[in-house]
Design a protein that fits this description.
The protein has a domain at 13-53 and 151-297. The chain is built from eleven helices and two strands; from the N terminus they run αβααααβαααααα. It has helices spanning 3-33, 41-48, 82-85, 91-105, 123-129, 160-171, 195-216, 220-245, 268-286, 293-297, 305-308, and strands at residues 35-38, 155-158. Strands 1-2 form a two-stranded antiparallel sheet. 16% of the residues are buried.
Length: 349
């Protein structure tokens, strides 16, 4: 085989694998390691799915310094005691002392029910002491689902949960402006229970694992087919599906409508997804090529036309049919590339 034939059979598959590996390694790592923020209804939907939000990094603060004594002390704001507040011969003082004695004799019930301020047994005594008082309350945990008003501020999540939110929105779409239900883009079971979380993590892990396998050329056809499936679901959920089922102004019935169709950024995501689908399909049909682990593990035979560049080495080729030349027939000028057999002396009618 000529050198340029070897190059033609070796480099295209390797370059396709390299481009796909870099793209999906970056995409998978970004979903697992990267973070983003959500708020309102998206945050509430993720909370109902059981997603744990990330804590925002705290800014570094300098070490606390011990405050020094002020030059001029603050005025004394100590509340006067009841004896100082009331005159000694007042009847209110005797009533307050009686209330204090009764409050000290009351037992402490840690399991008491919720009481109002006026009904608390310590309220009169506390008023007599001129000190704040507290009542025991019972806190009940509510199992009500989260709503958008619970998250007015942005919360931080891993980017993989953004894929879960996309899957959940595609399987359980919201209502239209006139309160009409939209057609789901994905099957209902993909948006039930923990399936959006499971599907999102499966997508990220598939992109990472298949990207590594494409880079080294291991299980190339299976890896390319799995990535093609991921991209088909992505292109349907984000572009083709909404244009076909939800957009009445779509172009040709399946292309999303844009205000300026000739703008460079109008269809960059759609065209990028389409290019990845075609590239993964090409690798799935072409195979790993010579520069791969698959070629070492699954070595082709001697008759493989991908290796020999032709029909292969056949040990028992078919014998050609010999024709006797006609001595009376005029000689024919045949070029070296003419492989047609000479005319027979007794042609059939």
């Amino acid at each position: 085989m000529r050198c340029r034939d070897h190059i033609a059979l070796t480099l295209p598959s390797f370059l396709l694998r390299l481009a796909l590996a870099i793209t999906f390694l970056w995409a998978g790592a970004g979903k697992i390691l990267g973070t983003t923020t959500v708020q309102g209804d998206p945050a509430a939907r993720l909370a109902n799915l059981g997603v744990t939000f990330l804590a925002d990094p705290q800014p570094e603060t300098p070490e606390a310094q011990t405050p020094s004594e002020p030059d001029s002390p603050l005025p004394d704001t100590t509340q006067p005691t009841i004896e100082e507040a009331l005159p000694a011969d007042s009847d209110d003082l005797d009533q307050a002392e009686d209330l204090l004695d009764q409050a000290e004799e009351l037992p402490i019930d840690s399991g008491s029910e919720l009481e109002t301020e006026e009904g608390s047994p310590r309220a009169p005594a506390a008023r007599a002491r001129n000190t704040p008082y507290y009542t025991l309350t019972q806190v009940l945990q509510s199992s009500a689902p989260a709503v958008g008003s619970d998250y007015p501020d942005p919360v931080r999540i891993k980017r993989v949960y953004g894929i879960a939110l996309l899957i959940d929105n595609a399987a359980n779409p919201a209502l239209t402006e006139d309160s009409q239900p939209l057609t789901p883009l994905l099957p209902k079971w993909m948006g039930s229970g923990k399936m959006p979380i499971i599907s999102a993590w499966a997508t990220a892990i598939t992109e990472l694992a298949a990207g590594v396998f494409l880079l080294i050329g291991f299980l190339t056809r299976l890896s390319a087919f799995s990535l093609m499936t991921v991209m088909l679901v992505a292109i349907w959920s984000t572009n083709i599906g909404p244009a076909m089922l939800h957009d009445t102004n779509s172009i040709l019935g399946f292309i999303p409508h844009r205000a300026d169709v000739w703008a460079p950024t109008a269809y960059n995501v759609l065209l990028w997804q389409f290019a990845l689908v075609i590239m993964t399909l090409s690798v799935a049909l072409l195979g790993a090529g010579p520069l791969s682990i698959d070629r070492i593990l699954f070595r082709p035979g001697r008759r493989d036309p991908y290796v020999t560049g032709g029909s292969g080495s056949n040990t028992n080729p078919a014998k050609p049919i010999k024709h006797k030349p006609d001595p009376e027939a005029p000689p024919q000028d045949r070029s070296s590339f003419d492989r047609t057999p000479p005319p027979s002396s007794n042609p059939t009618p």
